[in-house]
Design brief:
Layout: H1 3-26, E1 29-36, H2 42-55, H3 63-66, E2 70-76, H4 88-98, E3 109-118, E4 124-133, H5 149-161, H6 163-178, H7 187-204, H8 249-271, E5 278-283, H9 285-291, H10 293-309, H11 317-322, E6 328-333, H12 344-354, H13 356-364, E7 368-373, E8 381-387, E9 390-397, E10 404-405, E11 408-409, E12 416-418, H14 473-481
Parallel strand pairs: 1-4, 1-5, 5-6, 6-7
Antiparallel strand pairs: 2-3, 3-4, 8-9, 9-12, 10-11
Helix pairs in contact: 5-6, 6-7, 9-10, 10-13
Length: about 475
């Protein structure tokens, strides 16, 4: 990003922030970003958070609710007319009527909630809560703003050629080898390269590989940009001399890469991301453990890139008015209900290890960062089962249709007791640089993997008037909101 471009972007952000703060003088407002990579449970978390604030429930760690200081929470018209509304009612209906998880987040959406509460001294106040739900893949695009096309191409191709990805990247890499950057620009070649590159990214995201570092984010979530030149490019090897003719294939790719940044990345940063006050990042660590060490290492790199994109730190007077910083970031390992509670602390320890470098950077800027293992909606309950004369800690739930364990394929209706296994007491062995820390489905036969976590359907009984079962949702609410309700 050039100095002039950065100055223009900063001016736009400052204007939008000042407008937000002027509104906040009359109506104190907190903007919380909810994000995470694919399948992490963003929509589920946002739905559960809104339902908990509106309907209550057992929240012992969330002090404002536990003490009865929250009088009510009501939905209000969202502030940004050009942004889709988060479909809270539809998502809740899907959970209740169909016992199915809502569709994944593929775009930005917002929801405004007015929370009426009493301070500890009894003064009644209202906090306006703006929830901004967006795909975590879009965060991984933000570093592109400071990259040239050549830098992007070199990094992307290095990933594609790595052993964990090379198998699924074969067709794309073969075409890269056959199409040199200094060749004459050809639309059909550009479209085929983009198609093969997108197919490679999609293959990386399957359950078997479960890779996380997959920019550009819109290639797998194109929306109304599908087929546009801004999404019809791919990384190819830059020319050895670093210069390309204006009518070359490399120059065409470079122009479209810059168009992607201008049409997609900068508007997202300016309109949504730069205005956030706090952030929760949801992490599906269990899928990485299913896949194997390469997926876990890739997730670590992705999380480090995500937090590097945040402008974290304490807010002073000037930053509060013109260039706000995110002063709290919560990383949450989701699907804790897929483990017995005796393993929840171990899951937290793995997540803490995943964000270790990012944590040090945020702390140095004065931001508060925490990790938690949670299930915003608990799909299982715990039990003990006897097997071969031994008592095992198990979880009981209804696996989704098509899930398989021990050669048995579940039909989506039967309830089963599953022994999910134990995570290691310390996470260090999981991060063995040699990749020998554990075995996953990416490289080992199904019967020899160390971890295999099933996917469960939502529990029965969820409804508009009933509290939703959860694990540590109250801890997340206390971290994100507690001080603003004091």
């Amino acid at each position: 990003m050039t100095g002039l471009t950065r100055a223009i972007e900063d001016a736009r952000i400052a204007f939008a922030t000042l407008a937000d703060r002027v509104e906040g003088l009359a109506h104190p407002t907190l903007r919380i970003g909810v994000t995470g990579l694919s399948r992490a449970g963003k929509t589920i978390f946002t739905t559960a958070l809104v339902h908990a604030l509106m309907r209550g429930g057992r929240m012992p760690v969330f002090e404002a609710m536990q003490s009865g200081r929250i009088a009510r929470a009501v939905l209000e018209p969202q502030p940004d007319d050009a942004v889709p509304r988060f479909a809270y009612e539809a998502h809740l209906a899907t959970l209740a009527a169909d016992r199915a998880w809502p569709a994944s987040t593929t775009r930005v959406s917002e929801l405004r909630l007015a929370v009426r509460y009493a301070t500890p001294r009894g003064t009644e106040r209202t906090l306006t809560l703006d929830l901004v739900d967006y795909p975590g893949e879009w965060l991984l695009d933000l570093p592109l703003l400071d990259m040239s096309y050549a830098d992007f191409a070199r990094q992307s191709l290095a990933l594609a050629r790595a052993p964990a990805r090379a198998g699924v990247a074969g067709p794309y890499l073969a075409m890269v080898a056959a199409r040199h950057a200094d060749a004459l620009a050809d639309e059909s070649h550009a479209r085929e390269l983009a198609r093969l590159f997108t197919a490679y990214l999609a293959a990386c995201r399957t359950e078997k590989l479960a890779m996380s570092l997959l920019p550009p984010g819109r290639f797998l979530m194109p929306g109304d940009l599908e087929g546009s030149p801004a999404l019809t490019f791919a990384p190819i090897d830059p020319p050895a001399l670093g210069t390309m003719a204006a009518n070359s294939l490399g120059a065409m790719m470079e122009r479209r890469f810059e168009a992607y940044k201008n049409a997609v990345v900068r508007p997202f940063f300016r309109t949504h991301f730069a205005r956030l006050d706090r952030q929760i990042v949801l992490v599906d660590a269990l899928s990485a453990l299913n896949a194997g060490p390469a997926a876990l290492t890739d997730l670590e790199r992705a999380l480090d890139g995500i937090l590097a994109a945040f402008r974290t730190g304490r807010n002073g007077f000037a930053s509060t008015l013109f260039r706000p910083r995110i002063d709290k970031v919560l990383f949450a390992a989701t699907k804790a209900d897929h483990l017995h509670h005796s393993n929840h602390d171990r899951l937290e320890a793995i997540l803490a290890r995943l964000v270790e470098r990012a944590h040090a950077r945020a702390h140095g800027h004065g931001a508060a960062l925490d990790v938690v293992a949670l299930a915003a909606i608990r799909a299982t309950r715990e039990a003990q089962v006897r097997r071969n004369g031994e008592t095992l800690d198990a979880i009981v739930g209804t696996p989704e249709q098509g899930q398989e364990a021990g050669g048995h394929v579940f039909d989506g209706a039967e309830e089963v007791a599953v022994f999910p296994g134990d995570l290691p007491e310390t996470p260090d062995a999981m991060f063995d640089p040699s990749g020998a820390g554990f075995r996953g489905i990416a490289s080992a036969p199904a019967g020899e993997v160390d971890f295999r976590f099933l996917k469960f359907r939502p529990p029965a009984g969820i409804g508009a008037g009933a509290a939703i079962p959860h694990i540590r949702l109250d801890r997340a609410l206390e971290f994100l909101l507690g001080d603003r309700l004091a």
